[in-house]
Amino acid sequence: MTGRFEVDVFLFGRHRELAGAAVISVELAAGGTVADLRRTLSGHPSLGSAVEGSAVALNRRYEPDDSPVVAGDEVAVIPPVAGG
Amino acid sequence: MTVARSPAARSASDGVVVAEVTEDELDGADLLRRMGSTSDGAVIVFEGRVRDHNSGRSVACLHYDAYREMADEVLRDIVREAIQDTGVSAIGVRHRVGSLGPRSVSLVVAVSAAHRRPAYEASAYVIEELKRRLPLWKREEYGDGTSQWLDGQMPPVGSTDAGPEPERRGE
Protein backbone atom coordinates (compact mmCIF):
# COMPACT_ATOMS: atom_id res chain seq x y z
CA MET A 1 0.00 0.00 0.00
CA THR A 2 1.19 3.50 -0.71
CA GLY A 3 -0.95 5.43 1.73
CA ARG A 4 0.09 8.64 3.36
CA PHE A 5 -0.29 9.65 6.96
CA GLU A 6 0.16 12.72 9.13
CA VAL A 7 2.30 13.05 12.20
CA ASP A 8 2.44 15.90 14.69
CA VAL A 9 5.98 17.16 15.11
CA PHE A 10 6.97 18.95 18.32
CA LEU A 11 9.26 21.96 17.92
CA PHE A 12 11.48 23.58 20.52
CA GLY A 13 13.80 26.53 21.09
CA ARG A 14 14.55 28.62 18.03
CA HIS A 15 12.53 26.27 15.79
CA ARG A 16 9.41 27.11 17.73
CA GLU A 17 10.05 30.81 17.20
CA LEU A 18 10.84 30.37 13.51
CA ALA A 19 7.72 28.34 12.84
CA GLY A 20 5.53 30.35 15.20
CA ALA A 21 4.11 27.07 16.51
CA ALA A 22 4.93 24.43 19.10
CA VAL A 23 3.55 21.62 16.95
CA ILE A 24 3.27 21.29 13.19
CA SER A 25 1.63 18.55 11.17
CA VAL A 26 3.72 16.77 8.55
CA GLU A 27 2.49 14.35 5.91
CA LEU A 28 4.65 11.34 5.13
CA ALA A 29 4.31 8.39 2.79
CA ALA A 30 3.81 4.98 4.37
CA GLY A 31 7.24 3.50 4.99
CA GLY A 32 8.72 6.97 5.48
CA THR A 33 11.86 7.45 7.54
CA VAL A 34 13.48 10.15 9.64
CA ALA A 35 15.31 11.24 6.47
CA ASP A 36 11.96 11.69 4.69
CA LEU A 37 10.70 13.70 7.64
CA ARG A 38 13.78 15.94 7.43
CA ARG A 39 13.27 16.42 3.69
CA THR A 40 9.67 17.42 4.20
CA LEU A 41 10.52 19.81 7.03
CA SER A 42 13.32 21.43 5.02
CA GLY A 43 10.61 22.61 2.61
CA HIS A 44 8.79 24.40 5.45
CA PRO A 45 8.65 28.12 4.60
CA SER A 46 10.11 29.34 7.89
CA LEU A 47 11.98 26.34 9.32
CA GLY A 48 13.93 25.47 6.19
CA SER A 49 17.57 24.66 6.77
CA ALA A 50 17.31 25.07 10.57
CA VAL A 51 16.30 21.41 10.71
CA GLU A 52 19.55 20.29 9.05
CA GLY A 53 21.69 20.64 12.15
CA SER A 54 19.13 19.09 14.49
CA ALA A 55 18.40 15.66 15.89
CA VAL A 56 15.09 13.85 15.55
CA ALA A 57 13.52 11.98 18.46
CA LEU A 58 10.89 9.31 17.98
CA ASN A 59 9.04 8.27 21.10
CA ARG A 60 11.56 10.20 23.20
CA ARG A 61 14.69 8.60 21.77
CA TYR A 62 17.19 10.11 19.35
CA GLU A 63 16.97 8.20 16.07
CA PRO A 64 19.17 7.95 12.97
CA ASP A 65 17.97 8.96 9.51
CA ASP A 66 17.09 5.42 8.44
CA SER A 67 14.64 4.79 11.31
CA PRO A 68 11.03 4.38 10.11
CA VAL A 69 8.37 6.84 11.24
CA VAL A 70 4.96 5.29 11.77
CA ALA A 71 1.55 6.74 12.49
CA GLY A 72 1.14 7.47 16.18
CA ASP A 73 4.85 8.04 16.85
CA GLU A 74 5.71 10.91 19.18
CA VAL A 75 7.96 12.96 16.89
CA ALA A 76 10.18 15.86 17.90
CA VAL A 77 12.87 17.90 16.19
CA ILE A 78 15.63 18.60 18.68
CA PRO A 79 17.90 21.58 18.04
CA PRO A 80 21.41 21.32 19.52
CA VAL A 81 20.90 20.98 23.26
CA ALA A 82 22.25 23.39 25.90
CA GLY A 83 21.54 22.20 29.41
CA GLY A 84 23.43 23.18 32.54
CA MET B 1 4.16 13.68 61.54
CA THR B 2 6.14 10.49 61.38
CA VAL B 3 9.47 10.38 59.62
CA ALA B 4 10.26 6.73 59.82
CA ARG B 5 12.61 6.54 56.86
CA SER B 6 14.62 9.13 55.00
CA PRO B 7 13.65 9.91 51.39
CA ALA B 8 16.95 8.43 50.28
CA ALA B 9 16.07 5.16 51.96
CA ARG B 10 12.66 5.11 50.29
CA SER B 11 14.25 5.26 46.84
CA ALA B 12 17.21 3.08 47.68
CA SER B 13 15.97 0.34 45.36
CA ASP B 14 17.66 1.88 42.33
CA GLY B 15 19.54 4.81 43.86
CA VAL B 16 17.63 7.43 41.84
CA VAL B 17 16.57 9.90 44.53
CA VAL B 18 15.13 12.31 41.98
CA ALA B 19 15.68 12.94 38.24
CA GLU B 20 13.46 15.66 36.85
CA VAL B 21 13.02 18.92 35.04
CA THR B 22 11.03 21.38 37.12
CA GLU B 23 9.75 24.94 37.23
CA ASP B 24 10.36 25.04 40.97
CA GLU B 25 13.17 26.90 42.64
CA LEU B 26 16.20 24.69 43.26
CA ASP B 27 18.31 24.49 46.38
CA GLY B 28 21.37 22.28 46.63
CA ALA B 29 21.15 22.19 50.42
CA ASP B 30 17.61 20.81 50.27
CA LEU B 31 18.68 18.01 47.96
CA LEU B 32 21.79 17.35 50.02
CA ARG B 33 19.66 16.73 53.10
CA ARG B 34 17.87 13.92 51.24
CA MET B 35 21.13 12.13 50.41
CA GLY B 36 23.25 9.63 52.21
CA SER B 37 22.84 6.50 54.26
CA THR B 38 24.93 5.31 57.19
CA SER B 39 27.32 3.57 54.77
CA ASP B 40 27.99 6.72 52.73
CA GLY B 41 31.16 8.57 53.71
CA ALA B 42 31.03 11.05 50.81
CA VAL B 43 28.05 13.22 50.00
CA ILE B 44 28.50 16.05 47.53
CA VAL B 45 26.31 18.57 45.75
CA PHE B 46 26.85 20.68 42.64
CA GLU B 47 24.84 23.80 41.86
CA GLY B 48 24.86 25.33 38.39
CA ARG B 49 23.96 29.01 38.60
CA VAL B 50 23.12 31.71 36.11
CA ARG B 51 26.03 34.07 35.42
CA ASP B 52 25.52 37.78 34.90
CA HIS B 53 27.81 37.74 31.88
CA ASN B 54 28.63 35.53 28.91
CA SER B 55 31.02 36.09 26.01
CA GLY B 56 31.59 39.66 27.07
CA ARG B 57 27.91 40.62 27.26
CA SER B 58 25.87 41.49 30.31
CA VAL B 59 23.13 38.89 30.88
CA ALA B 60 19.83 40.03 32.41
CA CYS B 61 18.34 36.53 32.56
CA LEU B 62 18.37 33.08 31.01
CA HIS B 63 15.21 31.48 29.73
CA TYR B 64 15.24 27.66 29.80
CA ASP B 65 12.88 25.58 27.69
CA ALA B 66 12.71 21.78 27.65
CA TYR B 67 11.00 18.83 26.02
CA ARG B 68 9.75 17.89 29.46
CA GLU B 69 8.51 14.35 28.87
CA MET B 70 11.70 13.23 27.14
CA ALA B 71 13.97 15.22 29.44
CA ASP B 72 12.79 13.39 32.54
CA GLU B 73 13.49 10.04 30.86
CA VAL B 74 16.93 11.12 29.65
CA LEU B 75 17.87 12.40 33.10
CA ARG B 76 16.81 9.11 34.66
CA ASP B 77 18.83 7.14 32.08
CA ILE B 78 21.92 9.26 32.75
CA VAL B 79 21.58 8.82 36.51
CA ARG B 80 21.20 5.05 36.19
CA GLU B 81 24.27 4.85 33.96
CA ALA B 82 26.28 6.89 36.46
CA ILE B 83 25.24 4.66 39.35
CA GLN B 84 25.99 1.51 37.39
CA ASP B 85 29.36 2.72 36.11
CA THR B 86 30.73 4.34 39.27
CA GLY B 87 29.10 2.26 41.98
CA VAL B 88 27.83 5.23 43.98
CA SER B 89 24.87 4.67 46.30
CA ALA B 90 22.47 7.33 45.13
CA ILE B 91 22.10 10.37 42.88
CA GLY B 92 19.59 13.19 42.73
CA VAL B 93 19.41 15.67 39.84
CA ARG B 94 16.98 18.46 39.06
CA HIS B 95 17.14 20.95 36.19
CA ARG B 96 15.05 24.09 36.27
CA VAL B 97 13.13 25.63 33.36
CA GLY B 98 11.65 29.10 33.00
CA SER B 99 13.25 32.54 33.29
CA LEU B 100 16.13 32.74 35.76
CA GLY B 101 18.06 35.80 36.85
CA PRO B 102 21.74 35.89 37.78
CA ARG B 103 22.68 33.72 40.76
CA SER B 104 19.54 31.58 40.35
CA VAL B 105 20.22 27.86 40.52
CA SER B 106 19.52 26.16 37.17
CA LEU B 107 20.86 22.72 38.04
CA VAL B 108 21.51 20.66 41.15
CA VAL B 109 23.31 17.31 41.21
CA ALA B 110 23.86 15.49 44.50
CA VAL B 111 25.67 12.20 44.96
CA SER B 112 26.19 9.96 47.94
CA ALA B 113 28.80 7.22 47.95
CA ALA B 114 31.03 5.27 50.28
CA HIS B 115 34.08 7.22 49.07
CA ARG B 116 34.75 10.60 47.48
CA ARG B 117 36.35 9.54 44.19
CA PRO B 118 33.32 7.78 42.70
CA ALA B 119 31.11 10.56 44.04
CA TYR B 120 33.03 13.20 42.08
CA GLU B 121 33.15 10.95 39.00
CA ALA B 122 29.42 10.34 39.07
CA SER B 123 28.67 14.04 39.52
CA ALA B 124 30.89 14.98 36.57
CA TYR B 125 29.36 12.22 34.42
CA VAL B 126 25.82 13.41 35.06
CA ILE B 127 26.69 17.01 34.24
CA GLU B 128 28.67 16.23 31.08
CA GLU B 129 26.05 13.82 29.77
CA LEU B 130 23.11 16.11 30.40
CA LYS B 131 24.94 18.82 28.46
CA ARG B 132 25.21 16.37 25.54
CA ARG B 133 21.82 14.69 25.70
CA LEU B 134 19.20 16.54 27.72
CA PRO B 135 16.59 18.05 25.35
CA LEU B 136 16.73 21.49 26.90
CA TRP B 137 17.61 24.92 25.50
CA LYS B 138 18.47 28.34 26.82
CA ARG B 139 17.92 31.81 25.48
CA GLU B 140 20.04 34.61 26.85
CA GLU B 141 18.30 37.90 27.42
CA TYR B 142 20.55 40.94 27.57
CA GLY B 143 20.39 44.27 29.34
CA ASP B 144 19.60 46.05 26.06
CA GLY B 145 16.42 44.02 25.51
CA THR B 146 17.85 41.74 22.82
CA SER B 147 18.07 37.97 23.21
CA GLN B 148 19.40 34.89 21.47
CA TRP B 149 19.20 31.11 21.75
CA LEU B 150 22.60 29.78 22.74
CA ASP B 151 24.47 27.34 20.53
CA GLY B 152 24.33 23.84 21.91
CA GLN B 153 25.61 20.34 21.27
CA MET B 154 24.21 17.92 18.76
CA PRO B 155 22.88 15.00 20.82
CA PRO B 156 24.21 11.54 19.96
CA VAL B 157 21.92 9.42 17.83
CA GLY B 158 20.97 5.88 18.74
CA SER B 159 20.11 4.39 22.07
CA THR B 160 19.77 6.73 25.01
CA ASP B 161 22.70 4.86 26.49
CA ALA B 162 25.03 6.52 24.01
CA GLY B 163 27.41 8.16 26.42
CA PRO B 164 31.02 7.13 26.76
CA GLU B 165 32.01 4.99 29.69
CA PRO B 166 33.33 7.20 32.46
CA GLU B 167 37.07 6.87 32.50
CA ARG B 168 38.21 4.40 35.13
CA ARG B 169 41.17 5.81 36.88
CA GLY B 170 43.80 3.60 38.45
CA GLU B 171 44.07 3.50 42.19
Commentary on this structure:
With 84 residues, chain A is an alpha+beta fold. Helices cover 19% and strands 30% of the residues of chain A. The longest helix of chain A has 9 residues, at 34-42. Chain A starts with a strand and ends in a 6-residue tail after the last strand. With 171 residues, chain B is an alpha+beta fold. Helix content of chain B is 27%, strand content 33%. Chain B has four helices and nine strands. Chain B has helices spanning 7-10, 28-33, 68-86, 116-133, and strands at 16-22, 42-49, 53-54, 57-66, 90-96, 98-100, 105-113, 136-142, 147-149. In chain B, helix 3 packs antiparallel against helix 4. The longest helix of chain B is centred in the middle third of the chain and has 19 residues, at 68-86. The N and C termini of chain B lie far apart (46 Å). The interface between A and B is medium-sized, with 24 and 35 residues.
Give me some keywords for this one.
heterodimer, A: 84 residues, alpha+beta, five-stranded mixed sheet, 5 strands, 30% strand, B: 171 residues, five-stranded antiparallel sheet, 4 helices, 9 strands, globular, disordered N terminus, disordered C terminus
Distance between the termini of chain B: 46 Å
Across the major sheet of chain A, the strand order is 2-1-5-3-4
Radius of gyration of chain A: 12 Å
Which regions of chain A are unreliable across 5 or more consecutive residues at pLDDT < 50? none
- Cα distance spanning the termini of chain A: 46 Å
Helix content of chain B: 25-40%
How many strand elements of chain A? 5
What is the mean pLDDT of chain A?
Answer: 94
Overall form of chain A = globular
Spans of at least 5 consecutive residues with low confidence of chain B: 1-12, 160-171
SSE run of chain B: HEHEEEHEEEHEE
- Helix-strand sequence of chain A: EHEHEEE
**DSSP strand (E) fraction of chain B?**
25-35%
Report the radius of gyration of chain B as a whole number of Å: 17 Å
Shape of chain B: globular
